[in-house]
Amino acid sequence: MLTHKQYEEVKHLIAPGDIIAFGGTSLFSRWAKFTTRSVVTHTALVVDTPDTPTNQHLNDLTMIEATSIKGKKGVMYNYVGERIRTYKGDIWWLPLHNDAKASLEDNWITFHEFLADQLNKSYDIWQLFGAAIDTFDDHKWFKWLTYNRRKFNRWFCSELVAEGLRHGGILNELNASETTPKDLCQFNIYDRRYVQLKGKPKAIHGFNTLNPDGWGNIEDAG
């Protein structure tokens, strides 16, 4: 169920492991919307509040994302509030359901250590192309054109988030390199209510309806 709130109204409810989903207006975002048939084009993962809250970021939340922004490319921490203020497009908050939160608590150290190890790794836009276009994924000879094997030296947005959630015990037995922003939003790991934080109200089609077990794995893909 979609509701519409301002960030400041719900900031105190947003928790580590929750997803911030974006729907952009750039040429690449329009291409992503067309190929995936989704309003969501980018995802980030809430990790915590800042260790040292200072100046204008006092009490803001921190998220990790693989992106290209303000001349920087790669895996980086950003402040949720700042991204919301400057982003041109739609933004949603997708809160995890209680079972997923419990799994994260049980894997808290592994979750944070994994994400910290990915900081400053390169942004991988080409893997996102492969994840979004699955025309030949099941073809005996041509699957190499569009099927992404697990490769974690570089990251695209939803790949990083999915693998982070796997290390948090929330997802398992899936190929994060084949997980698009649309897929991630459809995995059934969320509370039934989600919140749009920016933009005109738009529902995410298929939100919270897809079983993620084994997602993106193809038999004999090696």
Q: Care to give the gist of this entry?
A:
The protein has 222 residues and is α+β, with helices and mostly antiparallel strands. Helix content is 30%, strand content 21%.
Overall, the morphology is globular
CATH architecture type: Alpha-Beta Complex
Low-confidence stretches: 50-54, 134-146
Stated plainly, the CATH topology is called: endopeptidase fold (from Nostoc punctiforme)
Portion in helices: 25-40%
**Which percent band covers the strand fraction?**
15-25%
Q: Which class in CATH terms? A: Alpha Beta
- The largest beta-sheet arranges its strands as 1-9-6-2-3-4-5
* Tally of alpha and pi helices: 8
CATH fourth-tier homologous superfamily: endopeptidase domain like (from Nostoc punctiforme)
If you had to describe this structure to a student in words, what would you say it looks like?
With 222 residues, the protein is α+β, with helices and mostly antiparallel strands. The protein has one domain: endopeptidase fold (from Nostoc punctiforme) (Alpha-Beta Complex), CATH 3.90.1720.10. The strands form two sheets. A seven-stranded mixed sheet has the order 1-9-6-2-3-4-5. Strand 4 and strand 5 form a beta hairpin. The protein is globular and about 35 Å long. The relative contact order is 0.21.
